Amino acid sequence: MKQTLHLTNTQHDIETAAAILKDGGLVAMPTETVYGLAADALNGKAVRRIFEAKGRPMDNPLIVHVADFSDIERLHLVSEIPEKAVRLAEAFWPGPLTVIMKKGDVIPDEVSAGLDTVAIRIPSHPDAHELLKTSALALAAPSANTSGKPSPTTAQHVIHDMEGRIEAVLDGGACSVGVESTVITLVADTPRILRPGVITREEIEAVIGPVEVDRAVLHQLEHDEKASSPGMKYKHYAPRATVKLLRGTNEAFINYINRAAKRFSPVAAMCFDEDRERMTVPTVTLGSKFDEKDQARRLFSALREVDRMGERTVVYAPCPKADGVGMALYNRLIRAAAFEVIDLPDKKIIGLTGQTGAGKSEVADYFREWGLPVVSADLAARRAVEDADVKAALCAAFGDILLPDRSINRRKLGRIVFDSPRQLSRLNGITHPRIIQLMLEEAQNAGGEIVVFDAPQLFEAHADLFCTHIVSVIADRELRMERLLRREHRTEEEIADRMDAQYEEWFFLRFSDSILYNNTTRGELRRQARTLYERLVCDEP
Ligand code: TXA
Ligand code: MG
Questions:
Q1: 119 alpha carbon, closest ligand
Q2: pLDDT in tens for each of the 541 residues of the chain?
Q3: Would you kindly state where each structural domain of the chain is located, as residue ranges?
Q4: Which one of the ligands is nearest to 128 CA?
Q5: At what angle do helices 126-135 and 11-22 cross, to 10 degrees?
Q6: Which residue's C-alpha comes closest to atom 31 of ligand 1?
Q7: How remote is the CA of residue 360 from the centroid of ligand 1, in Å?
Q8: CA gyration radius for the chain?
Q9: Contact present, 275 and 253 (Cβ < 8 Å)
Q10: Which residue's CA is the closest to the ligand 1 atom numbered 32?
Q11: CA-CA distances (angstroms) from residue 125 to 95, 173, 204, 393?
């Protein structure tokens, strides 16, 4: 196709755009929410081209845009205008609200995707209004992005996705709302929000009474679940980089990301302006923490920036609270993150780990004696393998490893993973997430503000990311060997194998905040531990 025309809002350009549309062409137009990819809504052939340009599945219906409320009747777009639609129109149109009603016969199947309903919206952006007025058309317009990618909020975003695929883009500057319209269906016993936007449930309820929120707005659909809004079932807003949402306090958010950045690369963060300075990783701003509308305005630009970071990058973002305007942010971010949310503890977690035989358990005993709750990873691991889901996953991975009483045959499992790093990492991939979850739950239920994680595999399980302070107990290899030979019924070779399977000393030194050297007597270890304890527990503000 030819180059895409770049138009602005001069009368001449608007007339050019209107002519293209009347001719069955495609024009990207600015709206207050996001840019839309418009075609004559009553021309099925023109509408079909929208799907081709976007790579959009044909079973996902489009929103029909009109200039004025009277156009809905004039063009027979719906079979009946419910009284609640009139009230919504008075309160919110022109504006970022889309109302689903029973469709009129003139609506082509391409627009409604075979449903008996049609989505209608009157945008408030002056350029969209001019284009609708000048063309005197109803315009079918989905967001003007490549299907699955973040919606475009500038003409440059549109050109990035659509150059050469559409006749023209009408540049109306950056969109002022930034997330797509609130979609509500009136074709239900109770009106139901199918997609949240900046017009909130609360605002709508003030006008038409009780409103439901569709389950798919906040939850991932099950495989066999039917979507009320077909758009909800597709992968959406997904940048190439992996996005993970973190739910927790500000402190925990910053701590987790900074630790992840030290351990893994590349890592980046989407975060609020107020927190950017404290991050040690590249950041993309989500706007001000105190201004959700600002966050909505910036969201898709931020996701596009994240897209440019490439697929190896892990990008952490704060998980929004799912009410008010936050629901619109949550709905987009949770999809960008493929529904992955990590819950952060709101306590201080001291991670206690170290080399085998170095004396970690003794230090755990001291901490316990001095009143700190100690969560044992070993005990959590025993519980984790008895968890039904974990058990099922283990059997799927390693075959029949159950005892007659249906508990896990730990010996058999041990033999399978022994000597096979690949099998061991499969085992860990299944058990570690559950172990961490159990430990975090136990920490949350423990009294007090500070909890110790006693975890020989703190780093392997990535439990270190949740820790506010990491302590490693270290000792010379010969000493550790001596202690273990005395204590355990194992051969020197077996113990050496276990030592070699651990990280090397430099690793503990690099990723810990404190080191306790135990080439010494019990009394001296206890003294060192006490000094650390006082620093962590008593001196902390
Ligand atoms: O703000 C917006 O709504 C933007 C601007 C351009 O107006 N448009 C937009 O369109 O976001 P689109 O196609 O990207 O999203 C429309 C959503 C989809 O999730 C679609 O499945 C749903 O609305 N939808 C459209 N018609 C529907 C219908 N009859 N029943 C249920 N859902 C419908
Ligand atoms: Mg869209």
A1: 1
A2: 689 999 999 999 999 999 999 999 999 999 999 999 999 999 999 999 999 999 999 999 999 999 999 999 999 999 999 999 999 999 999 999 999 999 999 999 999 999 999 999 999 999 999 999 999 999 999 999 999 999 999 999 999 999 999 999 999 999 999 999 999 999 999 999 999 999 999 999 999 999 999 999 999 988 777 778 777 776 678 889 999 999 999 999 999 999 999 999 899 999 999 999 999 999 999 999 999 999 999 999 999 999 999 899 999 999 999 999 999 999 999 999 999 999 999 999 999 999 999 999 999 999 999 999 999 999 999 999 989 999 999 999 999 899 999 889 988 998 998 778 899 999 999 999 999 999 999 999 998 999 999 999 999 999 999 999 999 999 999 999 999 999 988 999 999 999 998 999 999 999 999 999 999 898 999 999 999 999 999 875 5
A3: 5-217, 242-343, 348-538
A4: 1
A5: 50
A6: 229
A7: 57
A8: 29
A9: yes
A10: 229
A11: 8, 10, 21, 52
Pick the atom of ligand 1 nearest to 112's CA: 29
CA dihedral (179, 336, 294, 86) in degrees, to 10, reads 30
Helix ranges, 77-190 (H):
83-92, 109-112, 126-135, 155-162
Q: Do domains 242-343 and 348-538 have the same CATH topology?
A: yes
Atom 29 of ligand 1, residue of closest alpha carbon: 118
Atom of ligand 1 nearest to the CA of 37: 6
Establish how many alpha carbons lie within 13 A of residue 199's alpha carbon, considering only the half-sphere containing its beta carbon: 26
Query: How far does residue 22's CA lie from ligand 1's centre (Å)?
Result: 22
Ligand 2 centroid, distance to 143 Cα (angstroms): 4
Which atom of ligand 1 sits closest to the CA of residue 96? 1
Asked if 333 contacts 320 with a C-beta cutoff of 8 angstroms, the reply is yes
Fold of 348-538: Rossmann fold (3.40.50)
Token pair 């418009």 in the structure block, residue: 38
Nearest-atom number in ligand 1 for the CA of 65 is 7
Ligand closest to the CA atom of residue 229? 1
User: Among the atoms of ligand 1, which is closest to the Cα of residue 145?
Assistant: 14
* Sole residue written with tokens 């027979």: 76
In the reported structure, the alpha carbon of residue 119 is separated from the centroid of ligand 1 by a whole-number distance in angstroms of: 7
Ligand nearest to the CA of 61: 1
Contact between residue 193 and residue 212 where contact means Cβ atoms under 8 Å apart: yes
What is the fold of 242-343?
Rossmann fold (3.40.50)
What separation in Å is there between the alpha carbon of 102 and the centre of ligand 1? 15
CA of 120 to the centre of ligand 2 (A): 15
CATH topology of domain 5-217: DHBP synthase (3.90.870)
Instruction: Give me the phi and psi of 473, to 5 degrees please.
Output: -100, 125
CA of 418 to the centre of ligand 1 (A): 54
Terminus-to-terminus CA distance in the chain, angstroms?
65
User: Any residues with Cβ below 6 Å from ligand 1, and which?
Assistant: 31, 33-34, 36, 60-63, 96, 98, 100, 112, 115, 117-119, 121, 123, 141-143, 180-181, 183, 194-195, 229-231
